[in-house]
Specification:
Strand content: 25-35%
Helix content: 10-25%
Structural class: alpha+beta
Oligomer: single chain
Largest sheet: 5 strands, antiparallel
Shape: globular
Distance between the termini: 33 Å
Number of strands: 5
Strand order of the largest sheet: 4-3-2-1-5
Order of helices and strands: EEEEEH
Number of helices: 1
């Protein structure tokens, strides 16, 4: 997590990949890389643990609305 953020998030927590400016669901950490899955499903991607942060309330709501629209 980014500086001062503390421990890793729980599995399923929405986080922001600060390199790609992309939101994802936290899955696991392997060798210092956090694995994230797009909200609503899709292919996982990785980011260094220090380059992600927890999503804000507004970011979470926006991502959830987008996923609902996509699912129809």
């Amino acid at each position: 997590m980014s500086a001062g953020a503390g421990r890793l998030p729980d599995v399923g927590t929405l986080v922001i990949d600060t390199v790609r400016d992309r939101i994802g669901t936290f899955q696991t950490v392997i060798d210092g890389e956090a694995w994230l899955r797009p909200v609503g499903g899709g292919y996982e991607w990785s980011v260094k643990v220090g380059l992600m942060r927890r999503a804000t309330r507004d970011e979470r709501l926006k991502a959830e609305r987008r996923a609902r629209r996509r699912d129809g």
